[in-house]
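Ticket 4471: requesting a sanity check on a complex prediction with flavin mononucleotide. Repro inputs:
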Amino acid sequence: MADISSKFLGIKSPNPFWLASAPPTDKEINVTRAFEAGWGGVVWKTLGEDPPVVNVSGPRYTTLMSQDRRVIALNNIELITDRPLRTNLEEIKRVKRAWPDRAMIVSLMVPCNEESWKNILPLVEDTGADGIELNFGCPHGMSERGMGSAVGQVPEYIQMVTAWCKQYTRLPVIVKLTPNITDVRMPARAAKAGGADAVSLINTINSIIGVDLDRMIMNPSTDGWGSHGGYCGPAVKPIAQNMVAEIARDAATAGLPISGIGGITTWRDAAEFIALGCGTVQVCTAAMVYGFKIVQDMCSGLSNFMDEKGYKSIDEMRGLAVPTVKNWNQLNLNHTEKAVINQDSCIQCGRCHVVCEDTSHQAIFAVKDGQRHFEINEAECVGCNLCVSICPVPDTITMRKLAPGEMDLRTGKPVSGEYANWTTHPNNPMRSTA
Ligand SMILES: Cc1cc2nc3c(=O)[nH]c(=O)nc-3n(C[C@H](O)[C@H](O)[C@H](O)COP(=O)(O)O)c2cc1C
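Returned structure tokens:
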């Protein structure tokens, strides 16, 4: 059986699934239930200085749903914990004592001055927690007070605060990054320069979920006024994965451990983040939508997958997909694919034809012998994959790779095998960094 236990910065947990800092980790009662259900660790809801913040009463969470009412994304305008610091610290201490085999990370956000960080760190150490996570990511409410993403958007501040934390605590320091920036490598590099032991990402993305057109007010609203929130859930996974991969393949942050966050709902999502370089993964929305027991499917799914593929440990599969993530100009332009329609399973809905005709390459015939019948016109098909993406019947349209030497009817030339090994080919301008 594969070993799914994780050792991240020396912090052991029975599996790589941690709950992200958010409502599911705000209280002893929640975290105890989470550990009973099997979560490997938690990042406690972000602590701040007393007096605690005051949250709005009214919609704090709003969902974006698919037509079959699945949650695609969640928008929230919640702040950090609104409970007294001492209450949280006492609960953290009790939970860590009761669950010594689980990872207990404490998320922190205090004003951007050395004294504030110096004061809070010993209090956290005293709880017996395994590490701290610096919340440089919350995009609303706290950022207007000069904290959260207001720090995470300025690499110099990230480096400075991280360095203070490394100076005043012996606990491992994880820097949680905001996605509300242009190039995620800059804050990651700053975290490393400040001495961070790891980065975690992503926090939530600035968002307005909608407008109530009857009342002509932003939705959700607090007594008629709204404010942008933080976007998370399955919709943000592709954004998070790109940012994780950017850091994983950046030579300047090579080897910096990563805890992946953003839309993780199934074991597959987690396995993808691990393949892109993450040592642990964190989950918030999926737990808020489905409850804590989803971790059981995540563990068994990951374990079965690893058994099937022969991976003995998380470390063995970590980062395996990273070398395949390249800059666009490193791609092999001599690789050629064409769409193929399986006539046995085609339901003749014609969607592939309509979109190809209207928006792409006019490469799907609609009629044969006077009958409704859809077939690829290889002389026009560029292999763009739009028909595969919109076909409602799985595996009915697939892509076929043309073999070297095979005639490409579109170009009228045989497919060249010359650049088969493009990443190391001398004509590739990027080969030195490939
Ligand atoms: C209601 C809510 C509250 C959150 N509060 C915090 C917080 O206090 N500190 C923090 O670092 N992140 C906070 N987050 C962000 C999550 O930890 C996580 O980074 C984000 O939701 C992306 O993960 P997901 O797609 O699995 O939800 C919050 C998210 C939600 C939905």
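Notes from triage: The longest helix spans residues 294-309. Leaving this open until the requester confirms.
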